[in-house]
TrEMBL record:
PANTHER family: TRANSCRIPTIONAL REGULATOR, MARR FAMILY (PTHR33204), TRANSCRIPTIONAL REGULATORY PROTEIN (PTHR33204:SF18). Keywords: DNA-binding, Transcription, Transcription regulation. This is HxlR family transcriptional regulator. Pfam families: Alkyl_sulf_C (PF14864), HxlR (PF01638). InterPro entries: Alkyl_sulf_C, ArsR-like_HTH, HTH_HxlR, SCP2_sterol-bd_dom_sf, WH-like_DNA-bd_sf, WH_DNA-bd_sf. Gene3D superfamilies: SCP2 sterol-binding domain, Winged helix-like DNA-binding domain superfamily/Winged helix DNA-binding domain. It comes from the Bacteria. The keyword DNA-binding applies. Residues 15-114 form the HTH hxlR-type domain.
């Protein structure tokens, strides 16, 4: 059950929504968790991707999330010698569906400037995360790396769900943020097809084909929730 931490402020309601918001409802909390979906991050990485957050507030939120069991802190040994934060197994299971639902809600509000997404993160969210189809992922156990422009996102697909990366990636997908978003939200089928053709895939061909199917990056695939709207094609 979520709520291992006693929040400093709460709704004092015995309701699952209120109890969930006691843990996740503070400002910046969900955006911190969003950043950790792409893999373990240093404190400085989080600060760079959340430019509006005060450093003491980030430290406070990370502590709260650790106490809630949603985030793990790990001190890596020499020669790396750095501290990183990552989603815990509980975080992957409980938080990821929430982030996906909110992202679906906000997708139509995504501000595109001359057809380009605002960030590499938007490319990852719109182009990869929201297209994940757990029904197609049954039996797949693979670590993936998504290289979006100059930013890297690592995660695994295991037992039909997304999870923390385990070891080196078996499949690497390389794309621009603009192409990932255009493959989903392009104004025409021709633009969606052209964007998808520019996305590259490295790894064992059979595994690559499965990953492409799971993330609706293969021919004639339509992401979950976008039937009739997004016709990504190889």
């Amino acid at each position: 059950m979520l709520g291992l931490v006693v929040p400093t402020r709460n709704y004092n309601q015995n309701c699952p929504i209120a109890l969930g918001l006691d843990v996740l409802g503070e400002r910046w909390t969900l955006l911190i968790l969003r950043e950790l979906v792409g893999g373990a991050r240093r404190y400085s990485d989080l600060r760079a991707q959340l430019p509006g957050i005060a450093t003491n507030l980030l430290a406070e939120r990370l502590k709260e999330l650790q106490e809630a069991g949603l985030v793990d802190r790990e001190d890596l040994p020499a020669p790396i010698g750095r501290t990183v934060y990552a989603l815990s197994d509980l975080g992957w299971r409980r938080v990821l569906p929430i982030l996906q639902a909110i992202a679906w809600f906000g997708l139509d509000r995504l501000d595109l400037v001359d057809g380009d997404p605002a960030s590499q993160l938007n490319g990852f969210l719109a182009g990869v995360l929201l297209a994940f189809d757990p029904a197609k992922a049954a039996g797949l156990d693979v670590t993936c790396r998504i290289q979006v422009d100059d930013r890297r996102f690592d995660f695994a697909v295991s037992q039909g769900i997304l999870a923390a990366a385990r070891g080196e990636p078996a499949v690497t997908i390389t794309a621009t943020a603009a192409d990932l978003v255009a493959a989903r939200l392009g104004a025409s089928e021709a633009k969606r097809k052209a964007a998808l053709r520019r996305i590259t895939f490295d790894g064992d061909q059979r595994t690559v084909d499965t990953v492409r199917d799971v993330f609706s990056l293969s021919e004639n695939a339509v992401p979950p929730g976008q039937s009739g709207r997004v016709g990504a094609s190889h």
